[in-house]
TrEMBL record:
InterPro entries reported in the protein's UniProt record: Aldolase_TIM, DapA-like, Schiff_base-form_aldolases_CS
Pfam short name (any one): DHDPS
Keyword vocabulary terms for this entry: Lyase, Schiff base
Gene Ontology cellular component terms for the protein in this record: cytosol
CDD domains to which the protein is assigned, alphabetical: DHDPS-like
Keyword Lyase: yes
UniProt cross-references to PROSITE patterns, sorted A to Z: DHDPS_1 (PS00665)
Keyword Lyase carried by entry: yes
GO molecular function, one term: 4-hydroxy-tetrahydrodipicolinate synthase activity
Stated name of the protein: Unannotated protein
């Protein structure tokens, strides 16, 4: 599977009753593709997958995959807190004909390096499709460290790692130690130029829901500096907290209303939306309307 370009972990829209809005999901897919996104992650962190029932997860992934209809790769997020649950999620992705998985460490569990590698290996064996590891220890509590990656690097289905640890010193280590075995995928917003300058050609970014033009601008060396400078205040503000609520509110400002979140997250308040509006104005051409 080709991981190059910008892939978006699609947000999940809810209607006024808090129900997954499949019509809006289909519309969002078309908006993302019209803006040039290279792939979609269904039921990822930005998609509030942790707050979905298994049946809702199935609905979300199935709606996205059918709407995409082979035009770009679709990865299904896997974030089960037990191996049994994660295997069930991975098998669902296969049943729904997804192109691959994005597998996170099980949150709250705190497995050892060997236990984490065994967990991931078991999940992959149940699906046997290309898999991107998702390293986000701030959310899961454990990293995909060298001991774990050494046990996974030669698995034929492990194709990449979304690096969202916040430790930029890992980039040269990953590049050297796992060259031609595990592709590095940018998992940062504000620090994305560091990845691009290191030769990383793939980015799975939650903010690509709202700022696809800026993401592609940052990936392009000719526009990297200008694009990053324009949206850095916006990226920094959103990364400072309430990421999903701010991302959804920002999308509304850019023409795609989808502000509702699922508890315990709350929808962004009016003053927060005003702040985003000001930051969008500062970003200028790099934060255009999505439609």
């Amino acid at each position: 599977m080709d991981l190059s370009g910008v892939h978006v972990p699609l947000i999940t829209p809810f209607d006024s009753s808090g129900v997954v809005d499949t019509k809006s999901i289909a519309h969002l897919v078309e908006v993302m593709l019209a803006n040039g996104l290279s792939g979609i992650v269904a039921a990822g962190t930005t998609g509030e997958a942790y707050a979905l029932s298994f049946e809702e997860r199935q609905t979300v992934i199935d709606t996205i995959r059918k709407q995409v209809n082979g035009r770009v790769p679709v990865l299904a997020g896997v974030g089960g807190m037990s191996t049994k649950e994660a295997v069930k999620q991975a098998q669902l992705a296969v049943e729904l004909k997804c192109d691959g998985l994005m597998v996170a460490a099980p949150a709250y569990v705190l497995p050892t390096a060997t236990e984490l590698a065994t967990h991931v290996t078991t999940v992959i064996a149940a699906a046997k499709i290309p898999t991107v590891l998702y390293d986000y220890p701030a959310r899961t509590g454990v990293p995909f460290d060298e001991e774990t990656l050494d046990l996974l690097a030669d698995n034929e289905f492990v194709i990449g790692i979304k690096e969202a640890s916040g430790d930029l010193d890992r980039i040269p280590m990953l590049t050297k130690r796992y060259a031609k075995r595990i592709e590095i995928v940018c998992g940062a917003d504000a620090d994305s130029p560091t990845f691009a300058n290191a030769g990383v050609t793939s980015w799975i970014g939650g903010m690509a829901n709202a700022l696809p033009k800026a993401h592609f601008g940052i990936m392009n060396p000719d526009t990297r500096e200008a694009a990053h400078a324009a949206v850095l205040p916006l990226l920094t503000h959103i990364e400072s907290g309430r990421y999903i609520a701010k991302t959804k509110a920002l999308m509304g400002l850019l023409g795609v209303p989808c502000a509702a979140t699922r508890g315990p997250l709350a929808q962004l308040e009016a003053d927060g939306v005003d702040t985003l509006h000001d930051l969008v104005a500062q970003a200028g051409e790099w934060a255009p309307s999505l439609v």
